[in-house]
Each structure stands twice: as C-alpha cells, then as structure tokens.
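Form P-L/3: holo structure prediction, ligand flavin-adenine dinucleotide.
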Amino acid sequence: MSKRVVVIGGGIAGMTFAHTVKDKLGDQVEVTVVTKDPFYMTGPSKPLVVTKEQSYDRMVRGYEEAMAKGIKFAFGNVSEIDPANRKVKLVEAPSRAARVKEVEYDYLLVAPGVVYDGSSINGYEDYSYQVTNVYEPGRLDLLYQKVWSVKEGTIVVYAPPMPYRCAPAPSETALLIDTVLRYRRVRDKVRVIHVDANEKPQPGPTADIISNIMKERGIELITSRKIVEMNDKEVILDNGEKLPYSVLALLEPNRAPDFVIEAFGGPWLEVRSPQDLRSVKYDDVLAAGDVAKLPFPKNQEIAFESAKFAANKLFEEFGEEPEKVKYWFIGWIYVGNPEGRLESLSIQFSLDFTTKPPKATKDPEPKRDYTLQKDRWEQGYLNKLFHPKDW
Ligand SMILES: Cc1cc2nc3c(=O)[nH]c(=O)nc-3n(C[C@H](O)[C@H](O)[C@H](O)COP(=O)(O)OP(=O)(O)OC[C@H]3O[C@@H](n4cnc5c(N)ncnc54)[C@H](O)[C@@H]3O)c2cc1C
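OUTPUT (holo model):
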C-alpha cells in the first residue's frame, strides 16, 4: 500500500518537496498538498509593483499542472496538527459554509511559511489599517496608491528584528519609494526614514553598500530601534522618539503560524539539523522553508534547499539514493534608480554556508542587468514548480 505523504503549504518549499518526492517514489506514495489558496503568488518581485516594473499576471500561478502529474491538492486553511494521531485539520476553502476536514498522514512536511505578527506594537490592533508593505498583496496595493499620490510629509519604513522573511525587502522598499518620489518630482517635499530594529540594514554582508546608497539618496537611517507603539499619525520608538508619518511601510515581526506553535512549540519549528529536517519531537514530521528553525536567512533559495534535504530524509526511509544539494545562494537587492527612472538597478551578493564561517561575495556596483537576472531567476522557479514539464 502506498504511504500517505501530506504537505502543508503549496509554496516554494512545499512544491519543491512534493515534486521531488513524487518523481522519485512514484506509486509508493500518495502526495497531498494542503494549502490555503488555489493559487500561489511569488514574493521576490513584489517590491517592483511599487515602481510599476512588475505586474500581477507574472506573479501568480495555479496548481493544475501539478494535479495533472498526480499530486493531489486539498485547498483550505490548516487550523490544527495532531501529531500523536497523525492528522491535519483544515477548514475547506473556498466555501460559504466552511467545513472542517481531516487529512491523515504517514509522513508530514510542514511548510506554511510565516505569519506577520504586530501584537507587540501598542495600538497595532486599532490602527493596522494604516500599515502598508510589500509583503501582502492588499497592503502592497495600498502602498502603491499612497506612494503615487503623496505630495509632502514623511514616509516611515520599518524592518523588524531578524529573523524575518527576505532580509533586504524593507531596504528595497525604502529605495523604490525614493525612486517613485524622484520620478514624480516630489522627493524634496517628502522625508523618507528607514527604521531598522537591527544593528544594520539586512542582510549583514551588504549592509555597508545599502547604508551608503541610502545616504546618497537622502534616506534617513535609524538603526537598533524598535517601533513599540503606533497610532494613525505617528510611530513611537523604544527610546521614546516619536516619528509622525504620512505613509507607513511596516513589516511586523515574523513567527510560525499558531497551529505550528500549538503542535510543536515556537517561535519556529525546531528541526534536528539543517540536513536532518525531522521535527525534534516526531520522526514522521519534517519541516522546510521559512517556518523551520535554521541558522540561515529566510529566503526562497534556502526554502528550496531545505525542501530537498527534507525529501532526502524520506528517501532514506524508502532505501533510495539522496539528491545532491547544499546550502548556498546568489541574491539580488533592488536599489531603485538614482535618476528617478522606473528602471531599477540591483546589487548582487552570494552566501555559501558550506564553509565556516559562511563565505560572502558582493558587487557594490548597482547594475540594471542584476535586476533582469533576478527576474529570470524568479520566473525560472515559478516555471519549474508550477509548470512541471520544466522541472
Ligand atoms: C516581498 C518579498 C520579497 C522577497 N524577496 C526575496 C528575494 O529577493 N530572494 C529570495 O530568495 N527570497 C525572497 N523572498 C522570500 C521567499 O518568497 C520566501 O522565503 C519563500 O517563499 C519561503 O518559502 P516557503 O515555502 O517557506 O513559504 P511560501 O512560499 O510563502 O509558501 C507557504 C504556503 O503555505 C500556505 N499557507 C500558509 N498558511 C497556511 C495554512 N494555515 N493552511 C494552509 N496553507 C497555508 C501559503 O498560502 C503558501 O502557499 C521574498 C518574499 C517576499 C514576501
């Protein structure tokens, strides 16, 4: 009888794991992906919506081709994992009368990504309607509307304490906002302040380059300061400083979803090692992607690589050869355009975690070609995972 492999989260880690396992184990397994929406929206190019350089049709993919290949899907919001009885509970969607459904597993991969949690900021609950950012589609649209209409005032951008998803995205946000304001010829009337809860803009190896570019663009940088309070007009930092804002681009602190914390503890799902992604508590539960507690940045390449390592652990159980994989990546950071043209430049860096300490490389010169390379890289992932004939 085939083993039931259930995957929570049809994103980068979940889809990488589902394809890898189905391809190698075939009829030995029944792979079911349980995921919230019947579509996936990519992350990396979301910031370019602000400068009108990316459109939604290039960012969204469906699961139909993966279904045609034999991977099963259950669409719904997972509300509970019962690891003692090997069950996942979900509220089916889309449905008017939402039903709770149970899915049973022999092996479970947990890969639902992160939640953005503003509860540590006083006033957040009442004033979260003011929050824009590049992370969530609705808030991204609000940011777009505001950046393209603001005429004067102050824009505050906030990066929470690490770890959070995609280390450079808050800095990218500040630099792309600067570009739009230059394009609209209102830059001299709008202050842009980047507040970073960390010692320097992330990721660390590129902090000097990003800080210099922010200085050249007149973006005010405040580091090692958390936003602890907000209302509809100002944010308050942990040293008591008040920053009035016209537009607030705030990323909340990140953590694992509640159903993960309730089943395994938190704030991230603890695994045995970066190569052995079984939960420290259960042999039949694996984790990959942003939800896993790993000593690496939370990004797409690490999500892909951790999902491959998770699949290799399963292959051991089936007596199959592991696939070759290692933790390293090349990344690109959008830095906008100093002349206010809607053609963003990017810087390139790489991190290799196979050496101790990790080896970093970087090119401090912003280039248009790096933005185009990032686009090819992102589209390549989307094609590979959602048009599996390219896998
Ligand atoms: C603005 C932005 C910019 C980024 N830039 C970069 C970049 O330049 N480079 C880079 O490498 N990475 C970047 N990333 C990060 C990258 O997108 C993530 O690290 C990667 O997607 C993590 O993969 P994952 O599988 O863990 O999570 P995801 O890809 O987010 O997938 C999680 C899936 O789980 C589903 N899910 C969540 N909760 C539930 C639930 N309760 N029940 C059922 N399903 C659920 C979600 O709907 C989603 O489909 C960026 C992300 C964002 C948002």
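COMMENT: The mean pLDDT is 96.
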